């Protein structure tokens, strides 16, 4: 991908005088840079004096030195039904089953739509332009409607898990899915494969759309070998990635060894699923042999630090993410579900500081490394590395502009990376472009009425609170 300025002429949009972190092959930071957009793609990227003199733009914006970087990729988000309960619970492991059980039992199209809408709004306001789920939709078309309403890129999918013999009797003390939840979500292997085929046919991965279907499934020892092998075949047929949870808790290794005499990643390799088209989410508990297998296979990994930290699952305590990065594994970042904010820069911060604290080393992961995880590695985890993740000529014009009107934006150093990771975070996100379209402009969504969306979301959440009981998880008294 050419990252220079060799495409002059008429363009649709010219952004001038920005401090641009390109994430291109040379990792150039254009201290006084400009980008030009034509037909939704970057047509020119370079110093402002060169780009602005070589193009004629229909629309020009002067960024006045504002920080610019590629759209962030949230490589693992559960965007859907469960979003309407966040902030109410859970407070401990036992709460998860109660909350999810109620939500699953009362799921309907509106809750999928509003939950996904809330997630997408938050992701965009925090600088993400693309995300992937491992399959959290009961009513996929309603999730898609939310993604399209906001205007970001999304890879949603149906809930997909079948009758793996590992499910019955599995311990749930770590916060894993309960047996009751599993019963509500499980389907036959054939039905699961039909769901995967349906989402990839309806939303082609190679179709160029903002919403794309992939082989997204639950994983975590909840899917039979037949389903895993079938999903891999479907992914290959449709030219799409396969994405699933893996190695979230230590129990998965015990279950796998009891069933197959092998650890989980070794078993994936044994059945021919572990390869360069597979993205594995969490991967908190691997032994050295599994790390070697991942590195040798070309599989991608998604690290979700906030999800693990909130639930004490060991991503920092036991995770080998720095080692995998050093071995050339692509390690992306994900916000996950009940972990808190849908905020990739928050995940980048936690990844940067968490390993330093636990290992007593500095730096372990640098600001530059975690920014690569939030952009380039995220794009690769979604199979979109040729389209997004950096600001380069020919790639899709997804980028984020930060405001200068907050104290976190100052002082303005020529090298803004550490300021972005450790100080600004997402608090200064101002404008977000996808395909050169400002879907968030100066803090306001451009495609829909955000106030009306918040009203509908709050009404649906109030119905959940009333149904499960406002005081069910409260520690302090609620006084009306």
Average pLDDT rating:
92
Shape: globular
CATH class group of the domain at 9-70 and 390-444: Mainly Beta
Helix content: 25-40%
Structural class: alpha/beta
Backbone CA Rg: 22 Å
Uncertain ranges:
168-175
Number of helices: 18
Terminal-residue CA separation? 60 Å
Describe this structure in words.
The chain is built from 18 helices and 17 strands. The protein is of the alpha/beta class. The chain has a domain at about 10-70 and about 390-445: Roll (Urease, subunit C, domain 1). Helix 9 packs across helix 10, helix 14 (about 345-360) runs antiparallel to helix 15 (about 365-375) and helix 15 (about 365-375) crosses helix 17 (about 415-425). The longest helix has 19 residues, at about 450-470. The protein is globular. The model is unreliable at about 170-175 (pLDDT under 50).
Briefly characterize the structure.
This protein has 480 residues and is α/β, with parallel strands linked by helices.
How would you summarize the topology of this molecule?
Layout: E1 9-21, E2 29-38, E3 41-47, H1 48-54, E4 55-62, E5 67-70, E6 72-74, H2 93-105, H3 109-125, E7 128-132, H4 140-150, E8 153-155, H5 179-185, H6 189-202, E9 215-219, H7 225-238, E10 242-246, H8 250-260, H9 264-270, E11 278-282, H10 288-297, E12 300-303, H11 305-311, H12 315-318, H13 321-326, E13 331-333, H14 344-359, H15 367-374, H16 376-381, E14 399-402, H17 417-424, E15 429-434, E16 437-441, E17 444-445, H18 450-468
Question: Main traits of this protein?
Answer:
480 residues; alpha/beta; Urease, subunit C, domain 1; 9-stranded mixed beta sheet; 5-stranded parallel beta sheet; 18 helices; 17 strands
């Amino acid at each position: 991908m050419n990252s220079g300025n060799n495409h002059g002429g008429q363009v649709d949009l010219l952004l001038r005088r920005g401090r641009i972190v390109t994430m291109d092959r040379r990792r150039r930071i254009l201290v006084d840079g400009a980008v030009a957009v034509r037909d939704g793609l970057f047509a020119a990227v370079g110093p402002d004096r060169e780009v602005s003199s070589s193009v004629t733009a229909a629309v020009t914006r002067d960024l006045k030195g504002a920080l610019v970087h590629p759209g962030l990729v949230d490589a693992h988000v559960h965007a859907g039904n469960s979003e309407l309960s966040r902030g109410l619970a859970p407070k401990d492991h036992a709460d998860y089953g109660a909350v999810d059980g109620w939500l699953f039992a009362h799921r309907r199209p509106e809750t999928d739509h509003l939950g996904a809408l809330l997630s997408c709004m938050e992701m965009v306001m925090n600088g993400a332009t693309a995300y992937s789920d491992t399959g959290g939709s009961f009513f996929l078309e309603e999730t898609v409607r939310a993604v399209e309403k906001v205007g970001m890129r999304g890879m949603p999918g149906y809930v997909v898990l079948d009758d793996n013999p590992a499910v019955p009797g599995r311990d749930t003390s770590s916060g894993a899915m309960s047996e009751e939840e599993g019963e509500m979500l499980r389907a036959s292997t054939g039905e699961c494969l039909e769901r995967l085929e349906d989402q990839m046919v309806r939303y082609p991965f190679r179709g160029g759309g903002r919403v794309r279907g992939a082989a997204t499934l639950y994983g975590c020892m909840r899917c039979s070998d037949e389903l895993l092998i079938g999903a891999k075949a479907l992914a290959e047929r449709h030219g799409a990635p396969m994405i699933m949870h893996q190695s979230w808790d230590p129990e998965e290794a015990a279950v796998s060894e009891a069933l197959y005499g092998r650890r989980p990643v070794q078993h994936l390799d044994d059945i021919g699923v572990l390869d360069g088209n597979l993205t594995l989410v969490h991967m908190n508990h691997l032994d050295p042999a599994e790390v070697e297998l991942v590195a040798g296979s070309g599989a991608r990994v998604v690290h979700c630090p906030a999800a693990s930290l909130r639930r004490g699952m060991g991503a920092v305590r036991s995770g080998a993410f720095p080692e995998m990065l050093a071995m050339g594994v692509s390690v992306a970042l994900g916000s996950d579900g009940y972990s808190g904010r849908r905020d990739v820069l928050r995940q980048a911060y936690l990844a940067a500081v968490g390993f330093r604290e636990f290992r007593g080393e500095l730096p372990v992961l640098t600001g530059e490394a975690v920014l690569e995880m939030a952009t380039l590695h995220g794009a690769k985890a979604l199979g979109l590395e040729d389209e997004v993740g950096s600001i380069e000529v020919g790639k899709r014009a997804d980028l984020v502009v930060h405001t200068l009107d907050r104290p976190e934006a100052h002082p303005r150093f020529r090298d803004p990376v550490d300021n972005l990771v450790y100080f600004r975070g997402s608090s200064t996100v101002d404008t977000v472009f996808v395909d050169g379209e400002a879907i968030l402009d100066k803090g306001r969504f451009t495609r829909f009425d955000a106030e009306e969306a918040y009203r509908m979301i709050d009404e649906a959440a109030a119905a959940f609170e009333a149904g499960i009981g406002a005081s069910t998880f409260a520690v302090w008294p609620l006084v009306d």
